[in-house]
Amino acid sequence: MKAIETLLWSIALPGFGQLLNKRYVKGIAFILLELLINTQSQFNEAIRLSFLGRTYEAADVVGIEWLMFYPCLYFFAMWDAFKDAGGGQTPYSFLPFVFSAYFVTVGLMYSFDVTIAGIFFGPIWLPILSVIPGLAAGWLLQLLLLKWHKPTDP
């Protein structure tokens, strides 16, 4: 249960799960990195505009050079807190987190150019939607590796 709790707090804000796990230096470092990336990329303003349906304005305001760092920070902070709290004991359980970071990053890169069924999702919604295939790919690879390759290390 503690692993799920720390995972959910890490989803709320990178670093919160580490604070819950009493990893204060690491937690504060994640929070400071999140604040730096968030402010430099104008992420909150892009989120606000996207939730209002103003995705083109969100694309204009967001600083992609900074926002590109966010998916890896976000998913690594989630994984770190989850694992530190006792989760992730199944071999290859990191793969859904890693592939989510990959897919969200790619979704972010294409978010300025892609429309789906005539809808421009922009730099917030397309990366969020990219979590779904990222999780699916990670779980599928984990399943395949568990079936065909028995890990030797604990």
SSE topology sketch:
Layout lengths: L1 H11 L3 H5 L3 H18 L1 H9 L3 H7 L2 H4 L2 H15 L10 H16 L4 E2 L2 E2 L1 H8 L1 H18 L6
Antiparallel strand pairs: 1-2
Give an overview in words.
- The protein is an all-alpha fold and 154 residues long.
- The chain has one domain (1-148).
- It is built from ten helices and two strands; from the N terminus they run ααααααααββαα.
- The protein has helices at residues 2-12, 16-20, 24-41, 43-51, 55-61, 64-67, 70-84, 95-110, 122-129, 131-148, and strands at 115-116, 119-120.
- A two-stranded antiparallel ribbon has the order 1-2.
- A hairpin with a 2-residue loop joins strand 1 (115-116) and strand 2.
- Helix 3 (24-41) runs antiparallel to helix 7 and helix 5 packs across helix 9.
- The longest helix has 18 residues, at 24-41.
- The two termini are 21 Å apart.
